[in-house]
Structures are given as C-alpha cells and as structure tokens.
Amino acid sequence: MNNGMEYSDLGLSWADRMLVWAVPPLLGAVVGWFLPAIADWATGQAWVPFQGPLELITAIQGPWIVIVTAVLGLLAGMVLSHIAIKESLAVRLSDKEITLRIREAERTFAREEVSAVFLDGKQLVLLGTEGQELYREKPEAKRDAVAEAFKRHGYSWRDQDPFAEEYIRWVADSPELTPAMNALFLAREKAMENEDKEDAADLRRELSKLGITVRDDGKKQYWRQHGLRP
After folding, report:
1. For 28, which of 55, 73, 171, 185 could close a Cys bridge (C-beta 3.0–4.6 Å)?
2. What is the domain range of residue 220?
3. What is the gyration radius of the CA atoms in the chain, in angstroms?
4. pLDDT digits over 110-145, tens only?
C-alpha cells in the first residue's frame, strides 16, 4: 500500500499530448498551403461540392494567398488539438481519493465512497456503496494500465460489472417502474435516437437520483435498482 500521498495519473501521456498538439496544426498548415492550388483545380470539376467558396479562393490573387491559407490551416489545427485535449479524460488516483476531469468539469470521490471499479466496454465505471453508478466515462489509458493502477492503490477492481446479471431491458410503460421513471426513459430514448449525448447523460443522472442505474447496449436501455453492495 502507498501512503496516500502518492498519485497515479491515467490520461494522455506526454508523447500523446505532443502528437495531439503537433499533428493537426501541421496537417492544417500543409493543407492550407496547397488550398489555392486545390481550389483552382476543383473549380473545373462539376462534381466537387462547395463551388462557391472555392471560386472565392481562386478569385483572390497574389503570392501571399498561400501564406494566409497556411496560417488559417495552422490555426484551425490548433483549435482541433485544443478540443481533443479538452475532450480527453484525465484520472488522478491515490489511496485516499479519485479525481476525474473532462471538458473542464472535475469530480473527486473519496476512497470510502467507491465500492467497485471496472471497465464496461471502453468506459470506466465507479460504483458507490449502494451499488449506484457514481461515474462513467471513456479513459485514454489502456485497459491493463487502468486495472493495474486501481489495484495498486487498493481499490476493489472488478474484471466485469458485478451486477451484469441484474439488468432488465426497458420497454415502454414497464410495470416495475413508476410513471415518472418511464417518462425519463422515454425521453432518454429520444435523446439517443437524436444522438444528443449530453441530454442522454443528464437523463441518466436523473434516473440515478430515483434509484435506477442505466446501462446501454447500442440504442437499447437496460436498468437495475440501487441498494446492493457489490
């Protein structure tokens, strides 16, 4: 066991971050440099879309145009790099707590709050003392590295969901659920059909407040009740 002050970080490695920051801007600059030539060729091809913007690019004359488009491509690549870093999950854990950060949102769970940890497909899942789902998000680190880190800090790592056999598939107006719960499931089904991940996640949290944990299999929703310790 560690002394509680030693941390393990799970996320993009230094090398990964360098690649993320270097590759998109470089590609953007290269594409931007050749964009005037590409636009000049494409305007003569009827099947190529966006003829209007392409004609606008070709209408601008001067040797400086390639510099401008290269700089714009570089900036666009930097924006993509920033988004990629922002959208990646960073996990820091010690013997005492787990801190998870993504999209500028950070959450910390004390060790005693977490009863089990496992990977559900590619998503890291933390369970609470009543079997409720505390957190779910895709980590950047490899599966073996994630498992080894949680085991090293003394958390109850599971190779699979300890409640995998408890889930029931949701169907409209499920008699085991209240009308309010069924309404939330129906709204969540529509959110998933519209690929609104943020709304689906919010509705998952609302169901958790009512004592229901949700697990997805494609567009199918499965549920189980809280109240069991893994």
Report:
1. 73
2. 163-230
3. 24
4. 999 999 999 999 999 999 999 999 999 999 888 999
Domain membership of residue 4 (yes or no) is no
Question: In 16-154, at which residue ranges do the beta strands (DSSP E only) sit?
Answer: 90-93, 97-102, 105-110, 116-120, 123-127, 133-137
Residue 2 has pLDDT above 50, yes or no: no
Give residue-wise pLDDT tens across range 184-223: 999 999 999 999 999 999 999 999 999 999 999 999 999 9
Cα 169 from Cα 148, distance rounded (Å): 32
3-class DSSP state of 176: coil
Q: Specify whether 141 is located in the same domain as 178.
A: no
**Residue 5 lies inside a defined structural domain of this protein:** no
Six token digits for residue 43: 């305007």
Distance of CA 221 to the CA centre of its chain: 19
- Measure CA 139 to chain center: 8
pLDDT at 174: 95
**Residues 141 and 186 occupy one common structural domain:** no
Helix axes 14-42, 65-86, angle to 10 degrees: 140
Same domain (yes/no): 223, 180 = yes
Q: Considering 86, 113, 143, which residue would you say is the last residue of a domain?
A: 86
